[in-house]
Write a structure and sequence with these properties.
Elements lengths: L10 H20 L16 H10 L3 H17 L4 H23 L1 H10 L7 H4 L19 H21 L1 H16 L9 H10 L13 H18 L2 H9 L1 H20 L6 H5 L2 H25 L5 H28 L6 H24 L15 H7 L8
Helix pairs in contact: 1-3, 1-14, 1-15, 1-16, 3-7, 3-10, 4-7, 5-15, 7-10, 8-11, 9-10, 9-14, 11-14, 12-14, 15-16
Length: about 400
């Protein structure tokens, strides 16, 4: 492929996006039922769930950023930079602002109720909803931090994405991609930049998922966006990942086993000590890359068919992401008083999250044209045209 704008709407990219965000919803449904800090907590824990979630932490958000990098290059197409920026502001900044004003405050309210930091109705809480910045205050983007990161990084990396879609950039990247595809071991060199970023920037970083001060998070996400654009613009690289998918799976399992045996299960290695271990950062980077390579390889090999279900889910996934955590927090908050095992509560929370989110999406978001842009969707043709200025005969 010479010109990146020729990226086709690939079924494997859509399947990856849908499944990545679907796993994210399941992950958040489990957060109330482990020992980690979260917005609302349940007295019942499920130990097996925490083990699974710790494993998912290696690759769940990296996968989302990787797929987002491909989506950025696909959305850029042959648009002018100004048109692309306007589109990104509409697709990312508008849902983020709406989410912070409408979607997130109920989560903060229930957290304050459960922790005894507020008493009263939601209407009584609303005047305080935007007082101060979370966690000391109440204004927050909570799970929508991802939108802020993608927006900022998309604008910062736009010159690189424009170069990637240019003829000169395409020729150079095609040559590099073909060489890496012919010698699959070269792809593992992609682990070096994330390892270096983690090693150098972790001691300087703070405010995780808070943008300002989260240098390691920003730099790591930037690399993943670029990796996603690089991999998915090149059929040769995708085919190479498909060929070595079992090898990548083996590397992922082996390196995760080493991480668990040497570092995770040893209390002698707290986070501050690990921050200074270059071998740990390199092993983490290889492990994450291995899972990403394996997942992309299997999807490239097997998830190539389009269906009506995929078309529906591809449009629904963005509103689902915006809505889901508020539904999860509401369900988990009211389930906390129930005398049920943690596993049962998790299953109820996960099922209720998907069902409740789908009801809101199908009943309101998908059907009401004025709501669609607030959830990152385009208006349907007729509604969009009705909002456009009417041209005069001479114009």
């Amino acid at each position: 492929m010479t010109i990146p704008s020729a990226i086709d709407r690939r079924a494997d990219i859509d399947w990856l996006r849908v499944c990545a965000f679907g796993l994210l919803i399941l992950y958040h449904a489990g957060m109330a039922y482990n020992s980690w800090t979260w917005h609302v907590k349940d007295p019942q824990h499920a130990q097996w769930l925490e083990i699974v979630m710790r494993f998912m932490n290696r690759w769940r958000m990296p996968l989302v950023f990787l797929v987002s990098g491909a989506a950025i290059l696909l959305a850029l197409g042959r648009r002018s930079p100004s048109a692309f920026v306007r589109d990104r502001l509409q697709r990312l900044l508008l849902p983020l602002a709406f989410g912070m004003l409408v979607i997130v405050p109920p989560q903060v309210y229930l957290e304050r109720l459960q922790r005894g930091q507020f008493s009263g109705s939601y209407l009584e809480f609303l005047p305080h909803a935007f007082t101060g910045v979370y966690p000391a205050g109440n204004m927050s983007w909570h799970h929508l931090w991802f939108l802020a990161y993608v927006l900022v990084l998309t604008l910062a990396l736009l010159p690189l994405f424009l170069w990637m879609r240019s003829r000169a950039g395409g020729v150079w990247l095609d040559r590099l991609s073909q060489r890496a595809a012919d010698h699959g071991a070269l792809l593992w060199l992609l682990a070096l930049p994330p390892a270096a970023v983690s090693f150098w920037l972790t001691p300087l970083s703070s405010n995780r998922n808070g943008l300002v001060g989260d240098w390691v998070g920003l730099a790591g996400a930037a690399l993943l966006l670029l990796y996603g654009a690089l991999l998915f613009r090149s059929p040769a690289l995708l085919q190479a990942l498909a060929r070595q998918r079992w090898t990548s799976l083996g590397v992922g399992a082996l390196t995760y086993g080493v991480l668990h045996a040497v570092f995770f299960s040893d209390p002698a290695w707290p986070a501050p000590a690990l921050a200074g271990r270059l071998d740990h950062h390199l092993l983490e980077a290889v492990n994450t890359l291995a899972w990403l390579f394996a997942i992309v390889g299997f999807f490239t090999r097997h998830m190539t068919q389009r269906s009506a279900a995929l078309a529906y889910a591809t449009e629904a996934v963005y509103p689902f992401y915006i809505l889901h955590q508020t539904v999860t927090v509401i369900v988990a908050y009211y389930l906390a008083a129930a005398d049920l095992p943690g596993t049962v509560k998790f299953l109820i929370t996960a099922g209720a999250t998907f069902l409740g989110t789908w009801l809101i999406y199908e009943g309101l978001v998908r059907r009401i044209d004025l709501l669609r842009p607030l959830f990152g969707l385009k208006m349907r043709g007729g509604a969009w045209r009705s909002l456009q200025p009417t041209r005069s005969i001479s114009g």
